[in-house]
């Protein structure tokens, strides 16, 4: 199965209507991402430092996890996270599941507090991700679900995000349940606005405080 190469006009089946991403929207997102990332940088760096130290002291292996993910337009980029699973050279291919035994005790804490995601501010500053948008998936997962539902590829008409509508409403969904999250991703794409972004940020804080997540 070929790697996604998403180009061309955006059209999908009913009941969704894809709104072409305007230059105004792109400029707004870029400005918000840059400004908020710079403002949050001190807190993010402190969280990253804490996560790196805890991971280094609690388990063997690299503390930073790098994996190829599908981004804007189907382009593949290298996404950064703090490692939360027992180190295995070559990584894992199986889906993450609730109560996954591969996740270390410290890794579970990092996942629930979302500290493991903080290194992705690097991806935001490099222009590969946004603070808010559909979560980027591994190439093989994106290809698999695109083959099942052609609407899945339309997630790639905007930059993927560190958090998003699907993440705050389905915090316990596993990668295997991507089609459940797809409805939220398409809703965000067709209804993006400053108000919706603010709502997602507030709900993200609530999810973190309640320590929900895999």
Oligomer class: single chain
> Using only CA atoms, what is the Rg?
17 Å
Name the shape in a single word: globular
What fraction strand? Answer: 5-15%
C-alpha end-to-end distance: 29 Å
How many H/I helices?
7
N to C succession of SSEs: HEEHHEHEHHH
For the secondary structure, the number of strands is 4
Structure class: mainly alpha
Summarize the main sheet: 2 strands, antiparallel
Order of strands, main sheet, comes to 1-2
The poorly predicted ranges are 1-18
Write down the overall mean pLDDT. 84
Helix-residue proportion:
40-55%
Which key features would you list for this structure?
two-stranded parallel ribbon, 44% helix, mainly alpha, 214 residues, globular
What does the model show?
With 214 residues, this protein is mainly alpha-helical. Helices cover 44% and strands 9% of the residues. It has 7 helices and 4 strands, in the order H-E-E-H-H-E-H-E-H-H-H. The protein has helices spanning 23-58, 105-113, 121-125, 139-148, 165-169, 178-191, 194-209; strands at 64-70, 76-82, 130-132, 161-163. Helix 4 (139-148) links the parallel strand 3 and strand 4.
């Amino acid at each position: 199965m070929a790697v996604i190469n998403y180009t061309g006009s955006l059209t999908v089946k009913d009941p969704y209507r894809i709104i072409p991403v305007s230059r105004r929207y792109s400029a707004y997102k870029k400005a918000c991402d840059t400004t908020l990332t710079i403002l949050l940088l001190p807190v993010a760096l402190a969280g990253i430092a804490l996560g790196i130290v805890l991971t280094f002291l609690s388990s063997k292996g690299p503390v930073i996890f790098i994996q190829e993910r599908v981004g804007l337009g189907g382009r593949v980029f290298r996404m950064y996270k703090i490692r939360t699973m027992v180190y295995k050279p070559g990584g894992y291919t199986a889906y993450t599941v609730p109560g996954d035994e591969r996740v270390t005790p410290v890794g579970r804490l990092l996942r629930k507090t979302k500290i493991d995601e903080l290194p992705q501010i690097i991806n935001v500053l490099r222009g590969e991700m946004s603070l808010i948008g559909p979560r980027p998936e591994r190439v093989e997962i994106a290809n698999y679900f695109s083959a099942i539902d052609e609407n899945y590829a339309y997630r790639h008409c905007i930059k993927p995000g560190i958090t998003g509508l699907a993440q705050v409403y389905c915090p316990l969904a596993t990668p295997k349940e991507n089609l459940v999250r797809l409805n939220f991703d398409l809703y965000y794409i067709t209804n993006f606005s400053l108000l919706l972004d603010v709502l997602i940020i507030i709900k993200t804080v609530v999810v973190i405080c309640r320590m929900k997540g895999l």
